[in-house]
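Researcher: Please predict.
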Amino acid sequence: MLDPAFVRQHLDQVEARLARRGAAADLGRFRALDADRRTTIAALDALRNRRKTLAAEFAARRRAAAQTGAAEEGDAQRERSRRLNEQIAALEARQRELESDFQSLLLTIPNLPHASVPAGRSSEDNVEIRRWGAPRAFDFTPRDHVELSERLGVLDLAAAAKIAGARFAVYRGAGARLERALANFMLDLHTRRHGYTEIFPPALVNSKTMRGTGQLPKFAADLFKCENTDLWLIPTAEVPLTNLFADAVLDAAALPISVTAWTPCFRSEAGSYGKDTRGIIRQHQFQKVELVKIANPADSYDQLERLTADAEAVLQALELPYRVVALCAADLGFSAAKTYDLEVWLPSQQAYREISSCSNCEDFQARRANIKMRDAKGKTGFAHTLNGSGLAVGRTWIAILENFQQADGSVLIPAALQPYMDGLARLEAR
C-alpha cells in the first residue's frame, strides 16, 4: 500500500511513476475521496468539540440552578443535545463509509517503480544484467524434460491427470527423490552458508494474511480458496513468511531478518490457458524454496543484491547456466518496486526461462501488514520487505534433466547434489 500522505502531496509524480508501469490507477477518485474524508473528519471534530462545550455549559447551568433554586432549561437542552448527537452519528457513518472506500482504493494501486528500474512496455524490454556459465554444446539433438522423464520413468503426468486433472504432476522413484534432494540442498545452502533461519509455515492462510502481501483483493482469481472458510492455499511462501512479522515493531539493530521455507505453492494460472501446456513448467501445484528479508530502508537495496546473489548461488552450485535480468517497469509484479529475474537455460527451447524473481517491495507490503521497526532513538517507521525464489524446485528439476542429459537418454546428477541422492550419480532408464 502506498503512503496516502505521499500520494496526496505528489499526485502528479505518482501518476507519472504509475504510468511507467502502464498502470491506470484512479487518482481522480483518490483525490475526491481523500478530500471528502478529510472534510468529514474536520466537520466531525468541530461537532464533537461543540458537544463538549454544550456539555460543559449544561453542567454549569445545573450547578447554578442547584445553588439558586432556578428552574433548569431541561427540555431545550436535551433537544439541542439530541440533534447534535444525530448529526455526529450521521457523520461517523459517513466517515466509516468513506474510509472503507478509501482503503479499498489504496489496496488496488500497485507499488511505484524505483528510479533504477528500466523503462519498457513488456517483458521484451527487460534488461540483461549478467550471465553465468555457457550453454552446453550438444553433439546430438537434446530432448525436452517430458521425453527424458518418460524414458527414465520418473514423471507420470497421466496419473496426475487421473487423480487431479491438468497441470499437476506425479513424480516417481528417482524423480521424487530428485525433487526432495533439491529442496534439501537449497535449504541447507541458505541456512548454512547464507544465514537464513528455516521456517515451516502453514500452506493455508487467512484473507488478512493474503492482503498483507498484496495477493488480495486484486488477484483473487489467481488463488485457490477453501469453500466455506476464510482460508486460502498459498501461491508462495512469501505470504506466510512476510506475515510472520505483521503487526510487529522490530528492533532496527536486529535487521535484516532473513528467513527461508520450502512449501508447496498453489496457483490457478488464470489467464495462462494455452501457455506451457507441455510438461511441468506451469503447474497448479509446485514446490519452491522461498527467501524473505525484513530490512532497514537505509540498506534494503544492498539487501536485494545479496538476496539475488543467494539465489544465484544455487544455480552456480548446480552448474546450470543462467542470466540475470532487471524487469522493466511494465513487467514488475504488483507489490514490487524493483525486481531481478533469474532465467535458467533450457536446451530444448534454446532459451532462458524464469526460475526465480527477487524483489524489493520497499514499505508497500509493510504498510499493508503493519511491519514496523524502532531505531536507537525510539523513532518508529515502516520496514522494507524483500522476497525471492531460492529456487523454484520443479523448474530446477527440469533444468537438471535437460542440461545434464546424455545421448543414451540418461541424466547425470550434478556433483553438489549427489550426497543428497545417496551417492547416485546418474538417472537411467529402468
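Model: The mean pLDDT is 95.
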